[in-house]
Amino acid sequence: MALEVTDGNISDVLTQNQITVLDFWAQWCGPCRMIGPVIDNLANENTDITIGKVNVDENSAITVQYGIRGIPAIIFFKDGNEVDRIVGVKSQAELQAKIDSLKP
After folding, report:
1. CA triplet 66, 78, 51: central angle to 5 degrees?
2. CA nearest 42: which of 33, 31, 53, 32?
3. CA distances from 63 to 14, 50, 100 (A)
4. Which residue segments constitute the domains of the chain, with CATH numbers given?
């Protein structure tokens, strides 16, 4: 299951592992609900990295900080720095390939 990321724990989350993947979502967003189980599956299969979900309605500071304009938005971090982002629904295989490309 993906970690719940908030305005209060974002700094700690980004330093837990070398690679972090954050899914920015909202309860009212249909595509977000579609990709939610995919994010949870990725979290269960990639225990060596941090995968989390940010509810944009409840965490406006993070949402503004990363300039989220469309959801679902998935941001990939390496060593705490953003290296890529994807907006919209993608398959689990596409997301896993992106994760694998970031691993050493």
Report:
1. 75
2. 53
3. 15, 18, 25
4. 3-102 (3.40.30.10)
Per-residue pLDDT tens digits for 49-102: 999 999 999 999 999 999 999 999 999 999 999 999 999 999 999 999 999 999
Q: How far is CA 67 from CA 8, 43, 70, 75, 87, in A?
A: 18, 24, 9, 11, 12
**How many angstroms separate the CA atoms of 85 and 68, rounded?**
10
Q: Exposed (0-12), middle (13-18) or buried (19+): which is 65, by Cβ within 10 Å? A: exposed
Residues annotated as catalytic (active site), given as ranges:
29, 32
